[in-house]
Amino acid sequence: MKKEIETFITDTLHKKGMRMTKPKKEFLDFFTSEEYLKTPQELLEDIKKHNINIGLTTVYRMLNYLMEAGLTKSYSINGELRYIFCPPDHHYHMICVKCLRVKNIFDCPVKDVKVEGFKIQSHQVDFFGICDQCEKEEVKK
User: Fold this and answer.
1) Is residue 59 classed exposed, middle or buried when 0-12, 13-18 and 19+ CB atoms within 10 A define those classes?
2) Cβ neighbours of residue 34 closer than 8 Å, sequence gap 6 or more
3) Which residues partner with 75 through β-bridges?
4) Are 73 and 83 in contact (CB under 8 A)?
5) What digits encode the pLDDT tens for the residues 76-96?
């Protein structure tokens, strides 16, 4: 995890009266490097494979905290909420509909859009498609 993101998260936790414990730090190190949309249960299962001792309640608390801080986004896919870490920089997500891998896109193709009669304050765009790896697997079939 980048130092500035860790500092931002730690400072925000302290402002909410929360401490940065070892399990929370290990969760953040894992979650901030994750490239796939995951349910809280899937995150917990993957974290346990790395011998990180954390419970499902802590996973949910950290995801809620990160959502409030604007550092996580959730998507409802097939009736399940799945989460991905969001760096604080303005970006978009490219999401593979097959494997649920997420790629961050930092170039803003709509920053200069003007709409008569409106002053745009913000925007949110997500792209859904098939990643190269899944496309190659489709061709093999």
Assistant:
1) buried
2) 43, 46, 84, 85
3) 82
4) yes
5) 998 999 999 998 888 899 999
